[in-house]
Amino acid sequence: MIIAVFPGQGSQTPGFLAPWLELTGVRERLAAFSDVCEIDLVAAGTEWDADRIRDTRVAQPLIVAASLISWEALSAVADGRPAGFAGHSVGEIAALVAAGVLTDSQGMRLVGLRGRAMADAAALARTGMSAILGGDEAAVLQRLEELDLTPANYNGAGQIVAAGTLESLGELSAAPVPGTRVIPLAVAGAFHTRFMQPAVDALREAADAITPTDPATKLWTNSDGTTVASGRAALDLLVAQVASPVRWDRTMASFAGSGVTGLIEFAPAGALTGLAKRGLRGTPAVAVKTPDDLAAAAALLEEVPA
């Protein structure tokens, strides 16, 4: 079973879209996506600096657009097809498009709104996120509770992302749990926490106006790692998760339980295949960072029938 996975915010780097623009039709696709999400994706992915593409309004549609471009490019050259789809945080929008729940236009419109709504919510308080690497999970969670921080991402492989006020995150860095390393993340708010409730409300109104299709292929939700057979349920879970934790640890456990034999991560790739190296040891994985990686991804798909 080959599973296609789509990354979340923080995976983007300046200029990462430039190699994709060398493919026929990509510039035109990005222009169409730009009109829908209200961001100049070509400029964002080729010219803008790290600070500018860190802006949530920019980062979210940029990541989803890149994922869809690389997914479409692989679909055009590969004989096989993944047996399932999953996305990490905003990557779930790309997963829903790939699984047939949303059209690409619906997905890009939704991610444009999601980015704007989460940026607006983040502006209401001085908040952020920090990755905690290693340590005893129970001790980490106890320390977060003491500091009124939320475990926003359970990424597996000994990594939890804490979110909350900058003051509390500063206290965590100053006095970390023994055996852990705390890394502040370059994000603009406490995503997947109560601070994002205003964004949930805005996104739910937009999602309610969409008529989704049930997924044509197995689709995982990283709200709890289960599979979802209903398009409406998948969309509702995606909306609610803006203010609730990402359980990528449970998603990877579900992959293992389903007999995963390989992962393909779409652009801007690398984060999820990195987690898989530790959480799904021995599972072949291809990170499709540039068009040069398409051949390896196609070969992995063709090794095992979907």
**How much strand content do the residues show?**
15-25%
Return the domain count.
2
Helical proportion?
Answer: 40-55%
Broad shape: globular
CATH topology of the largest domain: Malonyl-Coenzyme A Acyl Carrier Protein, domain 2
Within CATH, the superfamily of the largest domain carries the name Malonyl-Coenzyme A Acyl Carrier Protein, domain 2
What's the end-to-end separation, in Å?
A: 6 Å
Count the strands?
A: 10
CATH class of the largest domain: Alpha Beta
The whole-angstrom Rg is 18 Å
- Unreliable spans are none
Major pleated sheet: 5 strands, parallel
State the CATH architecture of the largest domain.
3-Layer(aba) Sandwich
Q: What's the short story on this structure?
A:
This protein is of the alpha/beta class. 46% of the residues lie in helices and 15% in strands.
